Amino acid sequence: MSLSKLSSTVKVFIIGKTGNGKSSLGNSILGRKEFLVARSMRSTTVHLGEAVGVVNGQQIMILDTPDPVNLNLSDAEIKNEVSRWKSAVEGPYAILLAVRCDVRYTAEEYDIYKRIKTAWGDNSFTNRLVVVFTFGDRQDRDIHEELKTVSWELSSVLADAGNRYVLFNNMARGSEMAAQVEQLLNAIHRLDMKSAVSPITQDQVLILVVLVVIFMTVAVYITLR
Ligand SMILES: Nc1nc2c(ncn2[C@@H]2O[C@H](COP(=O)(O)OP(=O)(O)OP(=O)(O)O)[C@@H](O)[C@H]2O)c(=O)[nH]1
Ligand SMILES: [Mg+2]
């Protein structure tokens, strides 16, 4: 059963390690080849990609992100990069973390996740998080059972996401693809979108303080003249 639609566009950030199928997932959701997909040791996506579409009657904007750690960005650069992504978060949004279900979840991959989460810098990150286990075509065991015995790193990610996860096969076609896209959209609609208002960032507070100081200086100057 599909849940009620949101009247405004839902922004869907797709984050995660390079090669985990982020761009493929964006294409799968939109139902068209919008983002470049490739098998490569280097990052295929190097800049934030955006594309809009209507999926099951819901306006969606996909934000396909690069893996900032694989691009060798420093923590300061990752913070800048993630701030750019965040500038798009007005209105309802979700964060999909692409994790491959067919390979071990490593400490390195956990580090990528942690660095993006730290750079995001507020609770909206975990409130909006859904883990998408990609490469679902390679999953031959019951994922719910398997997840009971995974590494502490992956358990910690799932705990952050309030245990919201879906299995996804980017290679699926036809009704199989339609069913899993619907399941994913339902997971997104179940997120608490009410706290969607983006909190004031430290930078915005600083600008506000500077403006107030300038205003008061001018007011004092005019009064004393
Ligand atoms: N078998 C299988 N292959 C997949 C799946 N999803 C993606 N792939 C393949 O994995 C490779 C990488 O996919 P991309 O979508 O480019 O991965 P990405 O996360 O965007 O990678 P970067 O842009 O480098 O960060 C491509 O060869 C895809 O065809 C899947 O669900 N199953
Ligand atoms: Mg990509």
UniProtKB/TrEMBL annotation:
Record domain AIG1-type G: where: 7-209
One Pfam family named in its UniProt record: AIG1
Organism domain of life: Eukaryota
Keyword list, A-Z: GTP-binding, Membrane, Nucleotide-binding, Transmembrane, Transmembrane helix
Bilayer-spanning residue ranges: 205-224
GO MF entries: GTP binding
Database matches in InterPro entries: G_AIG1 (IPR006703), GIMA/IAN/Toc (IPR045058), P-loop_NTPase (IPR027417)
PANTHER family, per database record: GTPASE IMAP FAMILY MEMBER 7, GTPASE, IMAP FAMILY MEMBER-RELATED
Family note: Belongs to the TRAFAC class TrmE-Era-EngA-EngB-Septin-like GTPase superfamily. AIG1/Toc34/Toc159-like paraseptin GTPase family. IAN subfamily.
Protein name: AIG1-type G domain-containing protein
Organism: Pomacea canaliculata
Organism lineage string: Eukaryota, Metazoa, Spiralia, Lophotrochozoa, Mollusca
